[in-house]
Amino acid sequence: DTAVSQTPKYLVTQMGNDKSIKCEQNLGHDTMYWYKQDSKKFLKIMFSYNNKELIINETVPNRFSPKSPDKAHLNLHINSLELGDSAVYFCASSQSRSRGRKETQYFGPGTRLLVL
Amino acid sequence: KNQVEQSPQSLIILEGKNCTLQCNYTVSPFSNLRWYKQDTGRGPVSLTIMTFSENTKSNGRYTATLDADTKQSSLHITASQLSDSASYICVVGPNAGGTSYGKLTFGQGTILTVHP
Lengths: 116, 116
Hints:
Order of helices and strands of chain A: EEEEEEEEEEE
Helix content of chain B: under 10%
Number of strands of chain A: 11
Shape of chain A: globular
Shape of chain B: globular
Strand content of chain A: over 45%
Distance between the termini of chain B: 41 Å
Number of helices of chain A: 0
Distance between the termini of chain A: 34 Å
Oligomer: heterodimer
Number of helices of chain B: 0
Largest interface: A-B, 29 and 25 residues
Number of strands of chain B: 11
Structural class of chain B: mainly beta
Structural class of chain A: mainly beta
Radius of gyration of chain B: 14 Å
Order of helices and strands of chain B: EEEEEEEEEEE
Largest sheet of chain B: 6 strands, mixed
């Protein structure tokens, strides 16, 4: 009964390849996020969708393209992978219906991407 | 520039002892401060969330304090257990016109190791 799930858990690929990471939440939340955790362990927001609409798009190369087919899914497609894309990517979700300031974000287990 | 700094970077304690982790932030305007626990190889899990009007929040053996004037927070862990070994991340949310879509600033985390 995983609340936020991601696939795959590990992804090893060559430079220049295109890959996708999938995320699904079964919490009925309206808002989903993609974060990148670098080697120094800082988590940084990449994208956020609310009810399938893009609401946060940080300074991320346009090789990264999020896709939200419905509010329970937020996938991340990465084109022309580079060495610097190696990191752990976390999906998260929150219930933003109340637009409160204290909504908890629930994180997935992460996808460990290694670009060779 | 919004920043969140945590200290110490790492901490080793014996099982049963108490410890306190520190967080200083420069995020402005400020809306809320969160503490997350991240076990190795897993996504962060929320421990506490406080708004600027709250100065303490407890969750079991975890007690967070907040001083919005000095922009400092602490997380106190009582009677530590082996399962407390993890990274503890301080996260600050900005006040974005009364709504909060999760544009959070994360600290680097304090790595806590509890030895038997």
